[in-house]
Amino acid sequence: MISNDSYSSPDLSALYFQMLRIRRFEERIVMLYPEQEMKTPVHLCLGQEAVPVGVCSHLDREDYIFSTHRSHGHCIAKGMSLRAIAAELYGRESGCCRGRGGSMHLTDPEQGIPGSTAIVGGSVPLAVGAALSARMQKNGRIAVAFFGDGAAEEGSFHESLNFAALHSLPVIFACENNLYATNSPFAARQPATGIAAKGAGYGIPARAVDGNDVVAVYEVAGEAVRRARDGNGPTLLEFTTWRWKGHVGPNCDVETGCRPRWEHDEWLSRCPLELLLTRLQSAGGGDPEVLAVMEQAVVAEIDDAFDYGRGGANPDPADILRYVDGRG
Q: Of the candidates 14, 101, 130, 135, which lies 20 to 30 Å from 60 by C-alpha distance?
């Protein structure tokens, strides 16, 4: 996390550093996954780094986020240990879920991450429930539901918006619209009105912005966080972005014809890190020596995380159902 001050101007270097951590972490998975030591399916967020960083930069440690099957970026941006994530990917006892959850079920309650869910749309009602709890306890916390464009087609999405609006709950609905649900294009599934327009039906303020522009994400997320903290209810945010890899796994699905090459190349030319670096340099930052030190620090952290993950112990087979069947 970078700042919990919703009124502050963004620290571009800090945003870049956090996005770089996510990018290099995901790239390391791509490099190591073919070794087949990670048995969990992985849904990578390469290309979508601006959304989790821009949103989570405004959150306090005690605030809640609920994520999806594509959860790595959200959890890293919220402050989760890279070691805990890497160990979980390897199924180790030292992982965040003691090797029982895998990539799609990362959790760290101490960092405000009660859990991630692979159920499409599942994060949305969970966040609403957490926001209701915060309202009843008057503890000042807010909740964020990260979800994809496919979740906006689920009944739970509409029921959650309705309930959150009715009770003016401190929740932010953050949709990462990467234009595909698995391999089904957005235009073939939903009308051209877009996802943000759905907020009007429930009286919820909504914004649709470029999800590859971290400054734009930061600004609208700050407004939504301020609104929630002030007791003015939920906000729906739609971030248009693009995942560089396939729906699942380390490969690019463009080679198999699942998505058109021209569309993929167009989005790759709008890399969120490169866009931010250009902005940073225009603002007088981006010194090559500073960036080199930043890169070295990130690589060292990731080296340590994956060494830790690979070197950990597997769960004892005699104890494999512990934490799973209710025995604790």
A: 101
Output the pTM of the full model: 0.94
Residue 165 lies in a domain: yes
- CB–CB of 44/72 below 8 Å? yes
Question: Where in the sequence is the domain holding 91, given as residue range(s)?
Answer: 12-313
Going by C-alpha positions, the residue among 121, 118, 208 that lies closest to residue 159 is: 121
Report the CATH number that the domain containing residue 145 is assigned in CATH. 3.40.50.970
Tally of domains within the chain = 1
- Measured CA to CA, the distance from residue 112 to residue 59 in angstroms comes to 9
Judging by DSSP bridges, how do beta strands 64-67 and 184-185 pair with one another? Answer: unpaired
Domain membership flag for residue 323:
no
The four Cα atoms 97, 99, 102, 108 give a dihedral, to 10 degrees, of 20
| pLDDT bucket at 261, cuts 50 / 70 / 90 | very high
Q: Considering the domain boundaries, does residue 236 fall inside one?
A: yes
In a domain, 197, yes or no: yes
Q: What distance, in Å, lies between the first and last C-alpha atoms of the chain? A: 31
